[in-house]
Description:
Elements (H helix, E strand, L loop, with lengths): L1 H21 L3 H32 L7 H26 L3 H35 L16
Helix pairs in contact: 2-3, 3-4
Amino acid sequence: MKVISLVMTSLTMAAITAAHSAQPQEHEMTDARASAGQSSSFQHAMAQAMRRMEEGMAISHSGDPDRDFAAMMIPHHQGAIDMAKAELEFGHDPVLRRLAQGIIVEQQQEIQVMQRQLDALKARASAASPSPHSPHHRSNPTKE
C-alpha cells in the first residue's frame, strides 16, 4: 500500500511538472509581450525619425551649394538625434547607448553651427539682392 501511494505521488508530481513546464510561465509571457511591444515602439520611433528627416531634407534648392548643404544636413542630423534617442529609450547594449549619447551631443552642436551659417548666408543673399523698393531695382527695365 505504501509502495502504491509512493508511485501515485511520484506519477502525480511528474504529471504536474510536465504540465507546468509545457505551458509558458506567466512572467515569460509578460516578458515576451513587453519585448514585442518594445520592438514595435522602437520600430515606430525609427520610422517617424526617418519620415521627419526625409521630409525636412526635401528642400527647394536655392542654387547656393552652401545654403542647400546646411538646409539638408540640419534635418539629417536631427534624424540622427531622434534615432539615438530611440536607442537610449529601447536599447540595452552599453557601447551603443554610449555612442547614442555622443551622437546627440555632437549632432546638436553641429546643427547649431549649420543653423548660424544658414542664417548668415540667407542674410547675405537678402542684402545682395535688390528689393523692389531699392533705387537700384528696375521694375520696368529700359534698353540702354
